[in-house]
Amino acid sequence: MLSLQDKAKQLLDKNARRGKDFYYTAPSGKKYPHQWSWDSSFHAIVNCRLGRAGLAKEELLTLLGKMLPDGTLPHIILHEPSLARFANRAFRFYWPKSDRSPLVQPPVVALAVREVWQTTYDVEFLQETLPLLERHFEWLGTRRRFGSSHLVSIFSPWESGLDHKPGFDRLLGHFARLPFGRYAVLYTSEMRMALHRFDPEEIVKRRYFNVREVLFNTVYALGLEALGTMFAAIGDLQKADIYRARSDSAGKAILSECYDKASGLYFDIDVRTGNLIREPSVSSLMPLALNNVPEEDYQALVSHLTNPDEFWLRFPIPSVPRNSLHFRPTPGFYLWRGPTWINTNWLIAEGLRRHGNVELADAISQASKELVERSGFREYYNPLTGEGGGEKDFGWSTLAAII
Ligand code: GLC
């Protein structure tokens, strides 16, 4: 019988796409044939930990190679001239570059590059990728940071990677409540941004969707820290200090600006009003991965995570807690409204390990492995029954093999 690791390798190979000048792993063969930024970064992390750093390098170089000159790291990249690509082109005709999204996703890429570095100690790879990572993080820190806050903004729910998370509902207006409404609103708001060439200044001025999202900012702070580590590794101590300080500031900003003391959870900020969007989701737990989270607040998060009425279900960690009105454990038309996803399990388990909470991290690891053994590498899972939902043979669920 194949081990979970071998099954993971098999799936990553099955979803791998190679061309003249690219190599990447598609999230799934059917619905997601292209390269997605945070998916690709997760795939690279798995390949790295499964002893295939070479593939991880190729995948990350393909991704970073498609960065736009200003530092935008596209959330979707279309490499293959297939029918699917044609359909997507027709659908996303308003993108300034037809093969690349003008939006971004949580910058997991910096964690993936650090993973390659810590596995291979390949200085050449670091010298090739660090300037690109730096350009992207500079772009985030200048073009996506407004006012005096150290947090960065997302301009579409798609940029969070948590597309239809309930917290976004109230920001999307009445149309979103019609059948297919959220999709219609997301596409039309992207087209509206296209009218202004996706220029951040214009988007802010027009008071379009502008949110400081907790998971995105946590990954941003962790990414800055990874940059600090890597600059130190190549002996650029000045830059190492700069990025560590930025990571510290971003982390502290999450901990102070997004914290809701009454509930002990972290919430997104609607930048237009300055208000917290008090709608719990798995994103609310992410700051436990930060190294500067105060002990008391860390413990508050752990007690939410381990509460059977909230996140500690038979197969943790649901994307929305059980006691939320929005909790839907079964597959639905909209994503991230209840099911358990393996990538958020991995991010939280890594955070717990960092804080020495091995037992809890192991429990998440166990549950994730069990999900995959029972139901295969699915896009997401019912947190009560373990049944798989969405796409089959889904790439980042291979994280279960290394969690
Ligand atoms: C869905 C997910 C997003 C992911 C994409 C490709 O849109 O919400 O996070 O990157 O699929 O797998």
How is this structure best described in words?
Helices cover 46% and strands 7% of the residues. The relative contact order is 0.11. It has helices spanning 4-15, 37-49, 53-65, 83-91, 109-120, 123-143, 157-160, 181-194, 200-205, 214-233, 237-257, 295-305, 342-354, 358-375; strands at residues 16-19, 22-25, 35-36, 76-77, 211-212, 259-260, 265-266, 268-270, 275-277, 380-381, 388-389. The mean pLDDT is 96. It has one domain (4-401): Glycosyltransferase (Alpha/alpha barrel), CATH 1.50.10. Strands 5-8-9 form a 3-stranded antiparallel sheet. Strands 1-2 form a two-stranded antiparallel sheet. The longest helix has 21 residues, at 123-143. Bound molecules: alpha-D-glucopyranose. Residues 27, 32, 36, 38-39, 161, 163, 335 line the site of alpha-D-glucopyranose (GLC).
Short characterization:
The protein is mainly alpha-helical and 403 residues long.
Task: Give short descriptive properties of this protein.
single chain; 403 residues; mainly alpha; Glycosyltransferase; 11 strands; globular; binds alpha-D-glucopyranose
